[in-house]
Amino acid sequence: MTKSLKLKQIVILGLALAPLFAFAFRDDFDGNALGGWWSFFSEGGGMQYEVGGGLLTVTHLGGALEVNSVAITAEIPGLGDYDVQTRLGWDEAEVSAIELMVGGHPPNWTTRSAYMASYRYPHEDRHIIASFALNRDARIPAPPNGMHIFHVFRKDMHSEAYFDGSLVLAEDDQVALTANTVTLRFQGSEVHGFAPLYVDYIQAVPEAPGWVVTLGLTLGFLLTGAAQRKLTRGEIT
Asked: Where are the beta strands (DSSP E) in the chain?
């Protein structure tokens, strides 16, 4: 098989699959300011943060409550099947927390029932907690401080959550919602101490439904078969 034939296959497959990935959200936190697509939601106080070096760094959470929370939410194109991934990090502190939520309704981050997936790290009990909609939680011991990958996806009403590549929770969804938002929630305390929280990137793309995978495999099979027939007849140079 020649390079030109391989290139043609890649182009054709790309054109076939392009509509699936036409709507995607990604923020690498480049530059020195938070993107205008983020909206702030506060419970108890304000958030001080920096954007630089490809990181969003939350440096302080202050307010009147013993534990204060601030969330930033971005709207995404409605996704039935989705794949959401973010790389988050934390330092040592008595009370700090960071959470990824994938929303099925317009932003209302204080109501967990409005979210299809919730993935959080509460420092006070040193666990990673994953949950889908109103179903059970799954907990694993928290790893050392540093950067870690939270990954959740849903396909054909089945959801899975991974932490640093390891499966944490898998279950069938009870609620058919469309993912319209992604939310990052930060929590901390002036009373008990606060250490910085970090976000490297966050992305949301459609999870390929079964028919797309089948289409890609079929196209690949047909193209390969056609190439083999042409090669046999000496038509490929």
From this structure: 25-27, 38-43, 45-52, 55-63, 68-79, 82-90, 96-103, 115-122, 127-132, 137-141, 146-155, 158-163, 166-172, 179-188, 197-206
